[in-house]
């Protein structure tokens, strides 16, 4: 450019700035006039970054795949060209590729702490809508399913197979055989038959793949249901002076209640899965699933009480005690939690009931030591108020209430039902 401001021969037209050469120290800075003002359409005051620089910086920020939180999420909103869902997909690609339907992705996101409010930051109304987009973005070449699996049905549970029906009826058959053996034997052999039957029922009643120790705790509780009440009465009376009575009706009633337990568990899994498919938010799903859980538990409790009353009438033992009902509900809740992936909580509830039973028997025995009479006072008070069934009712009832509270919290989550088959 000449001193007079006119373009030199072959130079650019007026008002058009040539692109700065590579390595030019003036790149990104506006040319200043004598008064310090900025010139040129792409210039900035004070050596600030140009719009192109800001765009490039925004692209680099959006492409890192880092969690979109705090200032990064604000930058995504400001630079509308960024794709927040793409970053989320990068973080959870393994989950999205493994899922056989959007519901599994929604459950997985919830397990990772993504809520409906979080989904709104990704421009979606809820987690389910966000999961549908993530599922659609993952390329699939097998017609919509992965790993050869079909999308799980959101409606009723799978029909009863012959094997599933036999497994549901097996505990009842073992219970009948045990009662028949108890009727046909006497003395030490009778006690051995009862213990063997209780241990066999513990194995038959356990859910598939239970937590370590679950079968042992279940076996202890069933043996206590058979011999515990009579043993406690003998201990409080100063004995035992001989063989104490065995209580067979609760054992048979619990064995026959295994079939209703399996049916109620399948009903809960199917209805929860259907509600998961129709829900439009995690809060909506939890609000509908928790009453369903309470209804299923009440349904099983009614079936169990009826079977215990029927068995007591047939065997001439009278109405069922609270201990047998509480034990049945505890075993059912442990089965539900195990089937939905909460094996540790189920085992802890059973172990707590066993600990209370053992502590009650030990305290009565320890009270026979000089100066230790006070140790047996709580057990004696419970026995006086409710009879022999008071202690198992308190032990199993307390553990069942704790498991029910835990189940109400965790089984209301979508992550507890994704891909869960009826059991």
Q: Could you characterize what this model shows?
A:
The protein is mostly helical and 423 residues long. Helix content is 62%, strand content 1%. The chain has 17 helices and two strands. It has a two-stranded antiparallel sheet. α5 crosses α7 (127-137), α12 (258-278) runs antiparallel to α13 (282-315) and α14 (322-339) runs parallel beside α17 (390-410). The radius of gyration is 35 Å and the shape is elongated.
Helix content: 55-70%
Strand arrangement across the biggest beta sheet = 1-2
Question: Which spans have pLDDT < 50 for at least 5 consecutive residues?
Answer: 1-81, 141-157
- How many DSSP H or I helices? 17
Distance from first to last alpha carbon: 85 Å
Going by helix content, strand content and strand pairing, the class is mainly alpha
The shape, in one word, is elongated
Sheet bearing the most strands, described? 2 strands, antiparallel
Q: On the 0-100 scale, what is the average pLDDT?
A: 74
Beta content = under 5%
Give the strand tally: 2
- Sequence of secondary-structure elements: EEHHHHHHHHHHHHHHHHH
Radius of gyration using CA atoms only:
35 Å
């Amino acid at each position: 450019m000449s001193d007079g401001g006119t373009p030199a021969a072959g130079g650019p037209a007026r008002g058009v700035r040539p692109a700065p050469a590579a390595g030019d120290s003036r790149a990104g800075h506006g040319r200043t006039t004598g008064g310090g003002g900025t010139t040129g359409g792409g210039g900035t005051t004070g050596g600030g970054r140009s719009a192109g620089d800001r765009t490039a910086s925004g692209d680099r920020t959006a492409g890192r795949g880092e969690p979109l939180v705090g200032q990064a999420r604000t930058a995504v909103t400001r630079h509308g060209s960024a794709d927040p869902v793409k970053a989320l997909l990068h973080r959870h690609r393994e989950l999205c590729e493994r899922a056989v339907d959007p519901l599994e992705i929604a459950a997985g996101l919830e397990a990772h702490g993504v809520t409906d409010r979080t989904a709104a930051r990704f421009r979606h109304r809820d987690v389910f809508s966000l999961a549908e987009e993530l599922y659609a973005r993952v390329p699939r070449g097998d017609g919509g399913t992965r790993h050869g699996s079909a999308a799980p049905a959101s409606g009723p549970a799978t029909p009863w197979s012959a094997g599933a029906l036999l497994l549901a009826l097996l505990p009842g058959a073992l219970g009948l055989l045990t009662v028949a053996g108890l009727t046909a034997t006497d003395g030490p052999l009778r006690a051995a038959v009862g213990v063997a039957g209780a241990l066999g029922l513990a194995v038959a009643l356990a859910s598939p793949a239970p937590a370590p120790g679950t079968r042992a705790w279940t076996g202890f509780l069933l043996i206590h249901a058979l011999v515990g009440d009579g043993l406690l009465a003998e201990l409080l009376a100063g004995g035992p002076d001989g063989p104490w009575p065995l209580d067979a009706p609760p054992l048979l009633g619990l064995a026959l209640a295994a079939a209703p337990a399996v049916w109620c568990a399948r009903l809960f899994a199917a209805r929860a899965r259907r509600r998961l498919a129709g829900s439009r938010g995690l809060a909506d799903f939890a609000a509908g699933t928790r009453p369903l859980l309470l209804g299923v538990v009440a349904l099983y409790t009614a079936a169990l009480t009826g079977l215990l009353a029927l068995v007591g009438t047939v065997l001439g033992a009278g109405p069922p005690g609270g201990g047998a009902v509480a034990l049945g509900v505890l075993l059912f809740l442990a089965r539900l939690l195990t089937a939905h992936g909460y094996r540790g909580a189920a085992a802890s509830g059973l172990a707590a009931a066993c600990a209370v039973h053992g502590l009650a028997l030990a305290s009565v025995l320890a009270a026979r030591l000089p100066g230790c009479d006070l140790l047996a006072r709580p057990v004696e008070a419970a026995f006086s108020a409710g009879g022999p069934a008071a202690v198992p009712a308190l032990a199993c009832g307390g553990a069942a209430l704790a498991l029910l509270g835990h189940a109400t919290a965790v089984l209301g989550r979508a992550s507890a039902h994704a891909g869960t088959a009826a059991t």
